[in-house]
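Thread: "does anyone have the structure for this chain?"

Original post by V.I.:
We have the sequence but no experimental structure in hand. Need at least a predicted one for the grant figures.
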Amino acid sequence: MVKSVKSLLSCFIAVFCLSMTTQLLAVDASSLVNIAGQQRMLSQKIVKAYFFQGERIRTRKARKQVKESIALFYKNHQTLLLEISDPTIKQLLDFIGISIDELEGITQQKYSQKNAARMLALSESLLEVSHSIVEKVEATLGLQKVIIVGEAGRQRMLSQRIAKYYIAYQAGFKDPEIIAQLNEAVKQFEVAQKRLMNSPENTPEITRELERVQGLWVVVRAFFLNIEKGGLPVTVFSTCDSILKHMNKITMLYVARG
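Reply from O.Q.:
Generated one for you, tokens below.
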């Protein structure tokens, strides 16, 4: 009888511990996806701010964004190096380490079309690899709740990617590919926004924040779709940063629900 009770108690403890481990993993997983996703956004924000600084638009704030975003990128990078043991992801992180060093080096130099072109190229490769890391982390964890953290976090990136292409065009990069990439980013943002608005994971607070994002989006959407007309770069800068702020709050609310 005593042996049976002990066996039952052992099973109960094992199940309880497994449940607690799973719960902790979900919290840690959401945070990890958030950090990895934040790197995507920073790869675009740094270059966006670099262009605004180079074009002497919101110069002081843009310069501050470049400096602070690079510092945060390095901090997040160290966290990912410590928390991730997968060898494939480690290789991708090594590539990112080299690329961010090069990108930081360019920000120390005088602004020029040549340096700006290099920054655009680096932002694309950093984004591609950072996004791959997010996807691999999500696939490894296989939890639905981290998927929505990744999608909300991607909206942060798109807000800065759109602003980056907008100011790059105004800075003289009028290649049709710039317009095509901008239009694609706008489309991706709107599709994801609709999915997030309809998510069963939403709390009333998350819904309110998403509605605020939608209100801001209405303000600037026409500027992006008529990029050839140009103008109002200060409005684009401030509004896209406001969207980023709200999407970051939304992402963290999803993380908290993890």
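V.I.: this helps a lot. DSSP finds eight helices and no strands in the chain.
O.Q.: and The chain has one domain: 30-257.
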